[in-house]
Amino acid sequence: MRPLVLNYEDDPRVRNINDQYMVGDAVLVAPIVQPSQTKRLVYLPAGKWIDFWNHREYDGQQDIVVDAPLDKLPLLIKKGTILPWGAEVDHISETPDPTMTFNVYGDSGSYHHYQDNGLDFKYQHGEYNDYLVNVDHGQVSVELVHHGFQPYRKITVNLNNQPVTLTYNSTTEHYE
């Protein structure tokens, strides 16, 4: 969590915003801070933004009104972002999921994804994977940049609700 001013230091509008924050560089969170509120005003910094819930696209440097019912935290994702979306687990000692999903916000983007066993320090000896997920106007590629751990068997990349599934070929060590 970080204040918007750390990401958009040249934007004078964000200097006094204390009820919105960023998670990383691409997820804007605008929680409800007033009782019984079901809508709220959100300021969007420069760039293009996509509503996490309804996928509506907005231009930045403007105020918008978003729905905020009790069960939905207002989230806006910067266009060009790829977010990992793994299966829900109760604790890290569960068997690793053999699949991974990435959601693309927009039609292009790039993302490095790190994977290890989450239990020990074997990553220090190279037992981890580094994936590079690229999407360029609907063309999807996944490269296993570093292979030191059991890779995902299948990777699904969701492009505007159109899934593209790639399967790991252990002979070529590529996703096809």
TrEMBL record:
Pfam families linked: DUF5110 (PF17137), Glyco_hydro_31_3rd (PF21365)
Domain Glycosyl hydrolase family 31 C-terminal: from-to ranges: 1-83
**Tree of life domain:** Bacteria
Q: What's the protein called, per UniProt?
A: DUF5110 domain-containing protein
List the InterPro entries hit by this protein, alphabetically: DUF5110, Glyco_hydro_31_C, Glyco_hydro_b, Glycosyl_Hydrolase_31
Q: Which Gene3D superfamilies does the entry link to?
A: Golgi alpha-mannosidase II
SUPFAM superfamilies per the record? Glycosyl hydrolase domain
Q: Which residues form the DUF5110 domain?
A: 100-161
